[in-house]
Amino acid sequence: MKNVIFVISDQMQRYAALESPVCKMDGLRRLCREGVEFPNAHTVNPICSPARASLITGKLPHNHGMVDCTHTVPEYRAQYDRTSKSLPEALKDSGYHISYYGKWHIERSYKLEDFGIDEYETEKAIPKARTTPISRIVIKTKGYKDSTICGVYEEDESHSEEHYIYDRTMAFIDKHLDSRESCDKPFCSFISTYAPHDPYVVPKEVYDLYEGVDFRVPEDWEDEKTQRPMIYHRLHEVWRDLTQEQIKTMIRCYYSACTLVDIQLQRLVSFLKDRGIYQDTMIVFLSDHGDMVGSHGLFCKGVTAFEQQYSIPLVMKLPQERHAGLRCMAYADTCDVLPTVLDELGIPALKGIDGKSLLPFLSSDALHSSYSVAEFFGQRYSYTQRVIWSEGFKYVFNAFDYDELYDLNRDPGETTNLISDPGLDAVKEKLVSLIWQRARETQDTYILDAQYFMHRFLPIGPSTGNQASAQFEMYNKTF
Q: pLDDT tens across 240-291, in order?
């Protein structure tokens, strides 16, 4: 059977990783040439725990239960459903020897053996990197604690947490290959780095790779956010006092953090080639979500539904480099990774998942995936959203304010919200119909059963709700 390695970065923006002429990502771009890239891949949720739980379950957040980050809300607000069989459990059942090194942040137990993982070291145990700060930028907001957003330290990349995580993974693979007990088994390794998540703190030697690069403040930094949700304006207030030089430094640090991950990826590929197993190993590179990196006057991620945080790098290097260099334009999302990997490895599909295998889309131009959907439940605060992409359009259902509609074919920068354009009413209704279709397919009763008069926000409704709500009809008497 084939070996498989998952390389999971945290908060890596697709544009920075794969499109920017400035960001130094030689390793990832080489992996694209030797594998398959999915330019229309999106996260199903723009924060860590929901997206990561979707990766290992193949289910949308409303079905696996982890709808917020584990550390931000009480357990009753986000409970991981342990009845869902996970990706590592499916691999374990098929004879895989499994390791996981790096950030977990999927559920609260941190008992990875319960998920079939043989060896692991998560953020609970990884030793804190000892670094000597050279410079930093601190965000100060009256009444809130001062928080570092980016910085540079003296030690080289070998002192970084990312280097440590990759070293631990390579040691596991070495031990696996050299062991009489396990060498006949295939292995699976999960590598999960914190970088480039904020704070964007990087070694000077990587930061110096960008010496002389002309970093520019994004053109939409002063985005007037016309007819956008008011919360987008409020979030900009956090960043509005930054100087031009601070913005440029923050972007440089973010790009350096991406490059730090890429340096480790290059080390891993060289190691696999030295051990003679690169050709037989499937490598899946992705991020849980992206980062605004200054676009629209924002940094980090959250309720804003812009592409910078939803569009993610997704690259699959298949064994024997099949389909090398292919850019598969099918709409894909986080939930699709699990069924795709199991399909490639010849492992039976898991029942009850929301994702689909992407393999059929690699071999026929006639095949395409018509849409993908994401969902957001807020982070500490409640901001219900559903986002849909189809035929180059993007609709954002904001239950708390204005909805958003963008024509990404003509306006990839999402500069103009077209939600009030009467000439696009048919487009809006088609996209909303797809939201309802996906809600029915995945039993998203959270919005499907929102039939009450004060919940009727969308241009058209779902027509029918879930019959489970019938028990509450005593509160809505028929006449």
A: 999 999 999 999 999 999 999 999 999 999 999 999 999 999 999 999 999 9
Distances, alpha carbon 361 to alpha carbons 28, 50, 337, 434, in Å: 22, 26, 13, 20
Pairing label, strands 147-153, 41-42? unpaired
The verdict on 447 and 388 lying in the same domain is: yes
Domain that includes residue 415, residue range: 384-466
What are the backbone dihedrals phi and psi of residue 442, each rounded to the nearest 5 degrees, phi first? -110, 10
Q: Supply the pLDDT for residue 150.
A: 98
Q: Is 142 left (phi over 0), alpha (psi -120 to 50) or beta?
A: beta
Distances (CA, A) of 314 to 165, 261, 375, 444: 20, 15, 19, 26
User: What integer best gives the mean pLDDT of the chain?
Assistant: 94
Q: For residues 409, 414, 419 and 423, what is the CA-based torsion angle, rounded to 10 degrees?
A: -30
- Neighbour tally for 211: CB within 10 Å: 7
**Residues 301, 198: one domain?**
yes
Measured between alpha carbons, how far is 205 from 217 in angstroms, rounded to an integer?
23
DSSP H/E element including 283:
strand 281-287
**Same-domain status, 430 and 294:** no
**Same domain for 254 and 203?**
yes
Single out the residue of 344, 237, 368 nearest to residue 282, CA to CA: 344
The count of domains in the chain is 2
**CATH code of residue 252:** 3.40.720.10
Amino acid at 351: K
Q: Could you give the 3-state DSSP secondary structure of residue 128? A: coil
CB-based contact 99:169 (threshold 8 Å): yes
Burial class (CB within 10 angstroms; exposed 0-12, middle 13-18, buried 19+) of 12: buried
Position 205 scores a pLDDT of 98
Residues 399 and 346 in one domain: no
Which of 330, 364, 398 represents a domain boundary (last residue)? 364
